[in-house]
Amino acid sequence: MTSLSNRLIHEHVTDLCRSILEKSDIEVASNASLTEDLGLDSLQIMQFFAGIEALYPEISLEEWFLVQGGTGKDTVQSVVDHIDRNTLRVAAE
Amino acid sequence: MLNAAALPTFVKLSSAVPEQSFTQEELWGGVFADWYAELPNARDFGTVTRVRKRHMAWNPATDLGRKTRGIGERMQAYVGIVDEVAGRACAPLIEHVGQEDVGSIVMASSTGYYGPTPDYFLAKKFGLKPNLRRTFIGHMGCFAAFNVIKTAMDSVVARPGEATIGVCAEFSSLHFRPDATREQAIVHNLFGDAVGAFTMAMKEPGHGPQILAAHTHQSYETSDLMTLSVLDDGVQMTLSPYVPYVIASVITPFIDDLCAKAGVLPSDIKHWAIHPGGPKIVDMVAQKLGIPDEKLASTWHVLSEYGNCASATVLLVLEHLIAHDTPAPGDLGVMLAFGPGLTVEGALLRF
């Protein structure tokens, strides 16, 4: 079962993708790769990182892109799970 | 004791490029506009790479046009161009050191293969000794200058009376292909051809940049972020948008480790010769390390005027830095390059 926080983070991440792509009406699937499926290039990836940092200043995406940066592994859900996991960790500390 | 000791030293650097060169505008006017017609905002790739001009063995407009070519044709072209351009790069080195003093030659390339390898023909061209030690390093990518440098270091440390010639020869234009993808558009707007070469010998201070330390870091989780694959129609490079971020994430501890090997502080580094893999890599590395833009003049110059020339690039940057940044005797500098793995390679220099 997906937690409330996971669903909220999912909404934030997909909204951010739509905003960067300047396409407010597109479907952003959980399993969509940021680079392969959504087609974010290096400048847009930079916008994405900046957007996540603004939304979740306590979260670093470094561990995420070191593991999930490979071809097709950089899915929307992998970012959501990384943020969710680390938000809980930060809250527990 | 280290201050006056003989260490592996770049006693001379040299470089050469194919005769024909093209500005980004000429390439777009010639063929890129056609190749990338279906890509939105494709023309931006010509400017975001910060490349102004490149030298190329093949003119993409006339040697490729709308078609691709087989690996055999590409390798045939490599055989001719590598001997000519690497020959021009090595001529001043041999003139400076003398044939009899050259004990080894080490050469890297990721853009061509045949045997005997090109170093054999260079040795023959310059009348080097028949007992010359030869090493050819293939397919390691943009950081391979460091594999050449480290092999040369081993040679001169083991046989301090001999000099070693190091050569990095790259002709990426021989692998261009009319694939209309954003990734290939970036690659084709970034890479150029060049040969960088050096003579290394064991020398006391005052004969050229001495190498105080070398360091390597491989990130084992990121192997598919940058790849070189041999296809039926050439070597295809892939380049993930995450590459600059991964490099930036490891660069500070990397420099700390490199400097620690020689007992110096990162804040003591006055000169930077950074492989311009792409503008964002340079920007992010500079930001992480706090390098002021004026210290990147040679890096930006080489990117602008030659493009990313793979393994040859960092040698071109060092050559330009020595000529234009005029390091004072005793100044410390760092050379850096990045490539498939992802791998970061570096060397600490004392001028």
Descriptive notes:
The complex is a heterodimer of chains A (93) and B (351). With 93 residues, chain A is mostly helical. Chain A has one domain: Orthogonal Bundle (Non-ribosomal Peptide Synthetase Peptidyl Carrier Protein, Chain A), CATH 1.10.1200. Helix content of chain A is 60%, strand content 0%. Chain A is built from 4 helices and no strands. Chain A has helices at 4-21, 42-55, 62-68, 76-92. In chain A, helix 1 (4-21) runs antiparallel to helix 2 (42-55). Chain A is globular. The two termini of chain A are 25 Å apart. The mean pLDDT of chain A is 89. With 351 residues, chain B is of the alpha/beta class. Chain B has 2 domains: 3-203, Thiolase/Chalcone synthase (Peroxisomal Thiolase, Chain A, domain 1, 3-Layer(aba) Sandwich), CATH 3.40.47; 208-350, Thiolase/Chalcone synthase (Peroxisomal Thiolase, Chain A, domain 1, 3-Layer(aba) Sandwich), CATH 3.40.47.10. Helices cover 37% and strands 26% of the residues of chain B. Chain B has helices spanning 24-35, 45-48, 60-64, 71-97, 118-125, 144-158, 182-188, 243-261, 279-289, 297-306, 313-324, and strands at 7-16, 21-23, 53-55, 102-109, 133-138, 163-171, 193-203, 210-218, 226-231, 234-239, 269-274, 332-339, 343-350. In chain B, the strands form 4 sheets. Chain B has a 5-stranded mixed β-sheet, with helices on both faces. In chain B, strands 8-13-12-11 form a 4-stranded mixed β-sheet, sandwiched between helices. In chain B, strands 2-3 form a two-stranded antiparallel sheet. The longest helix of chain B has 27 residues, at 71-97. Chain B is globular and about 60 Å long. The model of chain B has no long low-confidence stretch (mean pLDDT 95). Classes of the chains: A mainly alpha (93), B alpha/beta (351). The A-B interface holds A 35, 39-46, 49, 62, 65-67, 69-71, 74 and B 48, 182, 186, 219, 221-225, 240-246, 249, 278, 280.
